[in-house]
Specification:
This protein is an all-alpha fold. 90% of the residues lie in helices and 0% in strands.
């Protein structure tokens, strides 16, 4: 079937359909050729190839400008990206410096607080020792005062029980003389 279709298609070509000389107005193939040449001449006369070329050049220029714009945008984006990466690196370095400074400051503050605590403990110990000494002195004074009071009371009792009225008057007179001698 395919062979028969190919054979009929080759037999039905316009060359076999026309009879007579080729350069005749009666030959349809010649007339198609003349019409085609006239059509091409008309297109050339109307400068259609130049217009098509201009349109293609214009389209080409538009594409080139878009490509150049895209390239410029790409370069600008690369520049901005590099700038942001540089800024990010600087910010990271600054953050690292801040962290290191904070660590150093915290260590210094801890050392200072430790020293302050030592001084505070020393002051409190000294104050506690002073209070202990003061309490001891106060206790010793109280004991002495109590001892004096007890001794005076005991002496008073002893003197009162052993002394007569005449010897008491003599003692008072002697005391008055001692005071008078010491005052003059």
């Amino acid at each position: 079937m395919k062979k028969l279709t190919i054979l009929l298609a080759s037999v039905a070509t316009p060359t076999f359909a026309a009879s007579g000389p080729f350069f005749s107005m009666q030959n349809p193939e010649f007339m198609v050729l003349v019409g085609f040449i006239l059509f091409l001449a008309l297109l050339a006369y109307l400068k259609v190839p130049g217009l098509l070329g201009g349109m293609l050049d214009k389209r080409s220029d538009g594409i080139k400008s878009e490509l150049n714009e895209a390239k410029a945008l790409h370069e600008e984006a690369q520049t901005i990206l590099a700038s942001y990466e540089r800024k990010q690196k600087e910010v990271q370095e600054q953050a690292n410096r801040i962290v290191e400074a904070a660590k150093a400051e915290a260590q210094n503050a801890a050392a200072e607080a430790k020293e302050d605590l030592k001084h505070s403990i020393k002051r409190r110990l000294a104050a506690a020792e002073d209070q202990i000494v003061s309490a001891q002195a106060s206790a010793v004074k109280e004991v002495r005062d109590s001892a004096i009071v007890v001794a005076v009371a005991a002496a008073n009792d002893v003197i009162a029980s052993q002394m007569s009225a005449a010897s008491g008057n003599a003692l008072i007179e002697d005391a008055i003389k001692d005071v008078a001698d010491k005052l003059h």
